[in-house]
Amino acid sequence: MRISEDPAPGQRLGRYELLRLIGEGGMAQVWAARMEGSRGFHKVVALKTLIPALARDPQFQRMFLDEANLAAKIHHRNVVEILDLGDTDGVLFLVMEWIDGQTMQRLLRPGLRPMPISPAMAARVVADAAHGLHAAHELHDERAVPLGIVHRDVCPQNILIDRDGTVKVADFGIVKAFERLGDTTQTGEIKGKGEYMSPEQAQGYQVDRRSDIFSLGVVLFEAVTGALPFQVLHDLVLPQTGSSEPPRPTLIAPQCPRDLEEIILKALARDPDQRFQTAGEMASALEDFLMRRSGVITTAHVAELLMARCGDKLEEERQRIADAIVPQQRPGWRPKPGATLSVGPPSEGRSRNARTAPRRGIGGLMRAGSDALRPVALPWLVASVSTGVAVASLMFVALSRPRDQRPIVDPIAVQTQPSAAVVKLNGVVLGVGSQVIARPKPGVSLVVEARSSDGVSQTVEITSESPARIQINLD
């Protein structure tokens, strides 16, 4: 039994009618859907369907249902609510509250270039996310036994902000189920987004709530500076390697207050024992910072920033949803012929594994599995080059591209001396110290600038013919 290869608006899963595909990734599709009840009741929800390859796997089904049932027990204003879990005609799906808003990723990157937000605003958003995570981490069962929930994929794509400025953490459950399926050990690939992973998660060790705290520290670093502290090659995480220490945020964003910098660095401590021990503790530190430095920053301030940066996109998405609902409200309207979720073998002429190119939405619940709707990043590998210089970052590619169309891994290592130099690519900050940059296509040139703390700078042009290692000496 399977979902049809090309579901379309008007198809139904029980009492849910699909309205509009808003996200698709390697594990699931996310739809805006209409929940229908008696006497004309209806409500817009977000409905996530697993891709057929996973939905057909009995072992994954059991694990996904276990994890989703745990996640459904989380009730907090800063967590996306799970409303229903269904299995209709062999199609496994999850129903969540509809978030009329945007992801934090869109807030930080409304266009092609990253746009950091003020330290106070970053502290407000991340503190609220920390409150939601703490509620999940603290969850107990009916016998008061801790459930040990860990998100495992905390990142800007999984932090949603609705129109009134409420911050909500999304997408508990699927990553844990995928890890339990054994994919990590079978393929050597770490699921999730490596640039936000804790060292212990990247190396395949057992994780606890402090791993989520590290990931939240990366999010806070990015929100304040516009750059990531760690960026490295995806799929090549070597368990035997270590990781470099994060750069100080003030090297990239001098306006970052020192006390906020200390909060970020504590969250990013390599040793879990040196981090905040609970997300609630991190939230309290951020709330104290806000009271000392900025006074009261409310959800209204967050909503104002969201509308200033993403208001047009929000209105466009709201109109698309309204347009999708209108036909269903007309008297005598019926789904188009064939608009059902089918049961049986794949359509003739198409292989069972055939997949259409991922589509991209801009509003509502924007996550669709481990890699949906995000600019392609080549995540975290900590590797040592033969010269002994640790290469601990890779440029964040600004162009969106489906995950299954990965570039050829033929990177260029840019090494700086001194190692604390800030490195920019075409004017965009990549990070501090040595960087690994994806090799440009023939005919394309990139400009790399390195600047030391005393103001000495040097630029280098990189092309498809550049050597694999470039040294920039600022001493």
TrEMBL record:
Q: Which portions of the sequence form the region Disordered?
A: 329-363
List, alphabetically, the Gene3D superfamilies matched: Phosphorylase Kinase, domain 1, Transferase(Phosphotransferase) domain 1
Q: Which Pfam families match?
A: Pkinase
Protein name in the entry: Protein kinase domain-containing protein
One annotated GO molecular function is: protein serine/threonine kinase activity
Q: What PANTHER family does the record tag this protein with?
A: MITOGEN-ACTIVATED PROTEIN KINASE KINASE KINASE 20-RELATED, SERINE_THREONINE-PROTEIN KINASE NEKL-3
| Domain Protein kinase span(s) in chain numbering | 16-290
Q: Which organism is it from?
A: Sorangium cellulosum (Polyangium cellulosum)
Sites where the protein binds ATP: 48
Write out the transmembrane intervals: 377-399
Keywords annotated in UniProt: ATP-binding, Kinase, Membrane, Nucleotide-binding, Transferase, Transmembrane, Transmembrane helix
